[in-house]
Amino acid sequence: MPSRCEICCEILIAILLPPLGVCFRHGCCSVEFCICLLLTILGYVPGIIYALYAIVFIDRNEYFDEYRRPLYAPA
Q1: Is the whole-model pTM more than 0.70?
Q2: Are 50 and 31 in contact (CB under 8 A)?
Q3: Is 21 part of any domain?
Q4: CA distance to 3, 5, 22, 54, 64, per residue, from 31 (Å)
Q5: Is 39 part of any domain?
Q6: How is 11-50 classified by DSSP, letter by letter?
Q7: Residue 75, class by beta-carbon neighbours within 10 Å (0-12 exposed, 13-18 middle, 19+ buried)?
Q8: Count of domains in the chain?
Q9: How many angstroms separate the CA atoms of 54 and 60, rounded?
Q10: Tell me: the pLDDT tens digits for 34-65?
Q11: Which domain holds residue 24?
């Protein structure tokens, strides 16, 4: 479970650059990142809304197993 400081930093980054905030949370080759990148290209505000949803409400530990874990996540 991420700390409050990590979540606040990811939210601030997601407001400035939505795909980067999602990348920090879910990895850069995830479905969430691709959706956020597409929404940000189509419109900045939808990208921010989806990034905040992906950071706050989607739990990455629920569906990440050992093979799909991002490189920076602790083992």
Answers
A1: yes
A2: no
A3: yes
A4: 23, 25, 10, 10, 12
A5: yes
A6: HHHHHH-HHHHHHHHH-TTSHHHHHHHHHHHH-HHHHHHH
A7: exposed
A8: 1
A9: 9
A10: 999 999 999 999 999 999 998 888 776 665 55
A11: 4-63
Burial of residue 3 (CB within 10 Å: 0-12, 13-18, 19+) is exposed
pLDDT of the residue at 37: 94
What is the C-alpha separation between 48 and 72, in angstroms, rounded? 23
In a domain? residue 75: no
Tokens of 9: 């930093």
Cα separation, 37 vs 56, in Å, equals 17
Decide if pLDDT at 74 tops 60. no
For the chain, the average pLDDT equals 81
pLDDT of residue 8: 86
pLDDT at 61: 60
